[in-house]
Automatic annotation (TrEMBL), chains A, B:
Keyword annotations: DNA-binding, Repressor
PROSITE patterns linked to this entry: HTH_TETR_2 (PS50977)
Protein known as: TetR/AcrR family transcriptional regulator
Species for this entry: Cytobacillus horneckiae
Domain of life: Bacteria
Length: 204, 204
DNA sequence: TGTCTTATCAACATGATGTTGATAATCTAA
DNA sequence: TTAGATTATCAACATCATGTTGATAAGACA
């Protein structure tokens, strides 16, 4: 009901605007772009822009929301209830492999949106997405707050930030490893920490 | 030699502009601010702004650099060579306590710059600062790359992103814990992971 | 004190913004 | 395939922010 048929011209126009935005951000940074620049690149009239979006920021916000909603829905529809989100040494979680694979598919776009300085909204939304998976996984592993070493929110933020940081690093370096390798490394560092002979674990 | 006497009026003007910027970002977000807004708030003429900065972004960039340079120099001068940056269970590293204390002192400013959406430059510079400490600590602990479970750069990014995420969480929630508590939690989750009975460590 | 530096102020050209109304193109459904 | 509805185009507009300039005032410093 909520999805009436959308005029294909509208979809086309919005896609053109979004593509133009991504290109221009990469070329000259988000700040310097004007609505005029975007519509010129998209071969549309400037007034047309205002039929679809309030301003530059609105275009960016809506685009990021659409992209990340697709990501989340893709994961949900592929794994709906089938895969437990547990953390095990050297066995990368399939959802995380899928995550890196999806990002790889749209690497050009993710790279621009995640690694350009001054990209409002996208990074925080991406963080929310990751927090979703991580809090889900943590609740599955340990629903009892008392058995956590640190406040739950603290841990969730710690891991989502760490994972996002790694994703950004991967993109900045032009994806030097496969999705499976990345997911494996994440499991390993999460479980074992960074040192092979784990000098951390010397409990008193 | 590089620090000639700076006219106090210049310092005053720059301080006024920086303060105005921080206030306005908090009130209406970085995007919507104009140079006119900043100079009005600072009770300065708009032309005066251009005697000191190229544009809004230049003011922001220079301000963040100054703030973070002060932070780094403060830590260096307080601990110069005295404190090893090692990671031990339940014993928070003094540099990290100091870090949280410094942020607490300028919490209003850090909160705006780190948690407002769309804050160019500051977050990435802050990340660099953290990466500095972390890579220093990791090299002290384990200079041999072969004994790492994951690529060194991967681990450095993982931890700096995680730590920055936790700092942002702390600020967003209006510093609900003391710097010492925060530093302790960071050590604990880094060393032991999030679970008290560490179910992660079930090696095959 | 006088000199140098900086701030002030008004004014200007330029360019981006957001809106409007008339017109053309394109889609959808009968 | 055609008619009616939707959307895009285009030119024009007032408004606002920008960046700069030149003349003048105020403040710092030796």
């Amino acid at each position: 009901m909520s999805k009436k048929k959308i005029d294909p011209r509208v979809l086309r126009t919005r896609q053109l605007l979004r593509d133009a935005l991504v290109e221009l951000i990469r070329e000259q940074g988000y700040e310097k772009i004007t609505v005029q620049d975007i519509t010129s690149r998209a071969t549309l009239n400037r007034a047309t822009f205002y039929l679809h979006y309030q301003d530059k920021l609105d275009l960016l916000t809506q685009s990021t929301d659409e992209i990340l909603n697709e990501l989340v829905e893709g994961i949900h529809s592929s794994f709906d209830g089938k895969v437990e989100l547990d953390f095990q040494m050297n066995t990368p979680n399939e959802k995380f492999i899928f995550l890196f694979e999806q990002i790889l598919l749209n690497a050009k776009l993710y790279k621009v949106f995640l690694t350009e300085k001054n990209m409002p909204h996208f990074t925080s939304r991406m963080m929310e997405v990751l927090t979703g998976f991580i809090s889900e996984g943590m609740m599955a592993m340990e629903p009892d707050d008392h058995k956590l070493t640190v406040p739950r929110e603290f841990a969730e933020r710690y891991f989502s930030a760490a994972y996002l940081g790694v994703i950004v690093w991967w993109l900045e370096n032009d994806m030097p490893y496969t999705p499976k390798f990345m997911a494996t490394q994440l499991m390993r560092i999460t479980v074992q920490g960074p040192y092979a002979e784990n000098p951390f674990i010397k409990l008193k």
